[in-house]
Here is the input.
Amino acid sequence: MQKLSKKRSIGMLIGPCVLILIGVFVISLTLIEVIRYTELSNSKELQGIVTNKRMHRSSKGIRSYDIQYEFTLGENKYTGSDATGRENLWIGIPKEFFDALEINSKIQIAYSQENPNVNRPIVAPIGIGDMIAGGILGLFLFSFGFLLFLGVFL
Here is the structure.
């Protein structure tokens, strides 16, 4: 009977720790994205090329208008990327710009002089709502996990 009790205690300890770690991870990604976008405040601009485009409809019927693009600096090619290192991402732009663009069209890109992997089409809105939601989710997971962790010892 006591072994079962120890297993349950370990399980009650692991769950909160996992929530805390996930919360810290989500908060970290959010902060990295915020830092990436502040790097664009001292950006340069150049023309990139639209390599692909799509109209995407969510399960709720909301449409998004997305493009993929690339640009070259020196001998290096860059595409839309994020804080996790993923490249050639789909980037949402307003419909009026989407309708005017074709594949191989030129598009104005802002990029960080220190790190050209931090870049964005000039017409693309910064997803500040996503960053706020990510921060709130991370704080919630961390706080809930911490409260559960404290409950194990009280």
In short: The chain has three helices and six strands. The longest strand covers residues 43-57. The mean pLDDT is 88.
